[in-house]
Here is the input.
Amino acid sequence: MPEEYRLILKHADEDGYTPDIDCYMRHGGYETLKKALAIQPVEMDGKQVTPQEQIREEVKKSGLRGRGGAGFSCGLKWSFVDRRSGKPIYLICNADESEPGTFKDRQIIHKDPHQLIEGMIISSFANDVHLAYIYIRGEFPEGARILNKALAEAREKNFLGKNILGSGFDLEIYVHRGAGAYICGEETGLIESLEGKRPYPRIKPPYFPAVLGLYMCPTIVNNVETLCHVKHVMNLGAAEYSKLGTPNNTGTRIVCISGHVKKPGYYEIQVGHATIGQLINDFAGGLHDGRKLKAIIPGGSSAKVFKAGEKFKIRKKDAEGNDVEVEMDLLDIPYDFDTLMAAGSMSGSGAIIVMDDSTDIVEALGNISDFYAHESCGQCTPCREGSLWMSKALNRLNSGGGRQQDADYLLKIADNIPGGRTICAFGEACSWPVQSFVRKFKDEFEAKGAAAEKSREESAPQPVPAK
Amino acid sequence: MTGKIFNYEDKRREGNHRMAQMEDQQDFVVPSGLESEIDELITHYPEKRSASLMVLHALQEKFGYLSKQAIEWTAAKLDLEPVNIFELVTFYPMFRNYKVGTTVIRVCRTLSCALGGSHKLHGHLCSKLGLDPGEKGPQNTPDGKFTIEFAECLAACGTPPVMMCNDDFYDNVSNQEADKIIGKYRK
Amino acid sequence: MAETTTKDSSQAVQPQVEMVRIKINGMEVEVPKTQPDPITGKPVPTTMIQACAMHGVDVPHYCYHPKLPVAGNCRMCLVEFGMPAVDRNRQPVLNDDGSPKINKMPRPAIACATAIAPNMEIYADSDGSKEMRKAVLEFLLINHPLDCPICDQAGECKLQEYSYEYGQAESRFVEAKVHKPKQVDLGPRIMLDDERCILCSRCIRFTRDIAGDDALGFFNRGSYNTLGAYPGKSFDNNYTLNTVDICPVGALTSKDFRFRMRAWFLKETDSVCNSCGTGCNTIVSSREEVIYRQEPRENDAVNSSWMCDHGRLNYKWQASDTRLDAVSARRGDVREVIDWPRVVDELSGKLQSFAPGEVAFIASGQMTTEEIFLFRRLAEKFGGLRESFPNVGEGDHLLVSADKDPNTNGLFITGFTPAGEQGRNFQSIQDGIRNGSIKALFVIREDLIARGMDAGLLEDLQLLVVSDIHRTPTTDAAHYILPGCAHFEKRGTFINVKGRLQKFMKAVEGPGASRPEWEFLHELVHQTTGQNGFSTIEGLFNQMAGEIPALAGVTWASIGDTGRSVELPGA
Here is the structure.
């Protein structure tokens, strides 16, 4: 059985480990920052390479991919930043953890806030950022307090503020609280929210955050876990770091498992070193006794659902580097970025939601759709109208008003939303569950609709014969 | 095996449909201590408008809800039009432009918690407080002590069902646990 | 409302803009690489929708408006498109014939916000583009009330238009519609029906970015999003009615116009607003000689696509019951109604009975250039003092000029009153009447009593001829009243404060015996001087242009629909 590999959460759950700076420093905290700030310019190929460029290169070489949902290369994201505009560059930590099923950032913020702050300071240094924000979801008031306390402690020790540790580098970090909006997890929605506007995601092009972000300045938005990883990349060095995990899927990942398992919780693994089956059955203790697996959502509620027993043909590279097609059972899929994508879903925010055979799949989808209807910002047409339409249709289906044709009806709505038709990826987020649930469990949707039709027919008043 | 996990009572939430109206709070005064705190918050941003959410949080924490006066005060403070602030207050469910009970209970409604029994918890709490278990939106108890509503994912999906009472967080809440929690806040 | 980009040939020469070759619906075209930004005027990349419009391809849209910042929210203008393929080394991939290989992009783009690029191919009419349009339309309609029979927008509604083109007859939607506030009293001139609103944000952007009054916003969230003003605050700046024009559906309606007339019964006439010196271009909508509304007509050299509420609603005086509708002569205490040939005869005779300098002439910046030109002729014939008055009020940052007359420059350019000399002869004229050196006054569109002249002084005159369109204390004192026409009732030109010469057309007939002033002035000039003139406005204008250097070479026809700039005296 594979084991957890705790890098980010190494100390978080140790007895006596507290979120204060002294505890963090006793465990080697801020040593990586000191190391980073001490990097000297080097000459390479006749060119002067600044310490900042060296750190960015390390992050790129580490293969670190964003832990927020899209799994985009962190180094590449940083490389898009417009460094010639003359405008300030901002860093925003996306702590708006709100993808249903995800509760990893909560652990970091509550238990080891300084790790995040250290990661942010290093990332800010590497990108010439002098003002950074932590956008934390409104429902984490305690997390905001903890972070504010930690920031004050860091300021006290001159890890923040002017001329940090004599390096000449200035940085200030502030906590900004959201107020209950999933859309603020979308980076341009987050930026608008931070600007004090309705968090309507921006159209891209032209408003790519790396060029026209916060206050129309170049901006980096990284997830909490990603920024913590930056610290570890610098601590271990890209070469060592990238030995963790699997090629192109490096490092560790905190996987959150919830739903119908005996031991729901968060488990940090090397990316790809455990299969979905191992995560569910070994880490999370398996399903409740007497229950059978019905469905798995592998990457937060917007990821496409997997049906128990599904088999996949996955294109992989074999030992010689040739493309081969491997047939894989659902439970044998290694939990990483690429394989899940190849299987038609995604690891998203690293959240597995397990449903056993007691679950009414139509109702489960109804629950998810209610979430997306509630969270659609309403800016653009397909998502605004489509998300509520699907939720209403599912509510009708779930409260006895269904029709057999509702399965197709739902698919037609869902098919008109994604694929770049909306301003942001929320269009995909709200339609993928519907597309995948209905396609994979169509019989259940049709049965529910048919049953409702039959019951209406039976209870319809019989025609009264004319006198 | 239907309707056990999810509450599909016929009376369903009308989404987040709130009316564009406001409460009048004649005695609204921002204490000077709070105003200094707010002034300090504003310094965190290169542009004042950015402080909107933080100012609103600060005011709501003090007054329990955001009245017409609070909205206009915030707008004036940040050199904005009241409509700019009202747009935010009505967008974010955590902001309330209506009066609420002393304790606001927010039960997570979303999938993992639903699978873990949050609809039952919500139903239990509603019955306990004499409110309608079929209503998903906010409901106040007549004595003004409690408001209960469903909230979307509170990001603690591994320990369902979860709920918040004002800023306090509770997970793995059984019915017995819920009774105790209510008892604590009733005092 | 017209949304085409008008080219103003008389504007300063644009710097040479690089041209880019692209394909639109398979048609190879060239488009400029940049376009001026609607707000800042700075060159910004040309977008797909602009490129298509330049070549006559209409990409359906709701939220996009050429004069507003791009929002990109309606998604109606989504199009499929192709881009030149590049290989791993970012080198272009070529077809066998050496042309660049074009790959259809996997995701569509909104034409309103996507910049064109060399060799781009826009598939605005592809099946895929049409399917997306159809889907967006369906989404927009599910919560839209089907109240077209009582909706003011009917006939000029973009939802109706595109539904006809892309929609399906039957709705699949079987859920309950979202209900929102109806008949919201948004401000003194605007009603809002939130259920009809498609949340395109044009009105919000207009009032925030153009009018400078951040008054509107969206409340709530998602499908429950609701447009509104801050509760208790009235939407009341001087430009609110423009939001009605740009509302693509019937959500925002003008209180002045709503329920008064179906749009398709209206006759539209190109006109120019006379409420101030800006001379906003307008469309006057009328039916059976009644004006129902006035809307701005696009003219980038003058008013863009906007006009102020005051000017827009300032048409009601045209039909007021104080209009003068009869020619009359005062014989002692009796006012006798006479006809035009007789009044022209009598006046010609009487005017000629005075010695040079005994008749003074008072004109107004409300008169058309042609009328002022003829009036000056008449004044020159009798060698009298000439006067006109400045009419100054408050201007604003956008369109309203401090000059409340539409044609002050017409007075200057014809030389009736030299620039800067308005009001200077008034005292001399009053003194002249007092000392008997001035015995007659000919006044057009001016109330001298309101200007401070003593009513008794008018009584001293041997002859007072007044032409106006409304009854005033001065017309009451007149020996002859000549009922003139409002600018809605005749053709002519105004020259605005910036020297833009603009013509307007006749929308409705004037009341009773009222007559365009230039017609009777022409007859008076003819009868008193023997000079021939032109009895058509075209001929008259061209004759005038031949005599005034600033108008040299300009003909009535060459003024065009949006006018042209002329050199102002002293400028």
Chain B touches chain C at residues 15-18, 20-22, 68, 80-84, 86-87, 90-91, 93 (CB under 8 Å).
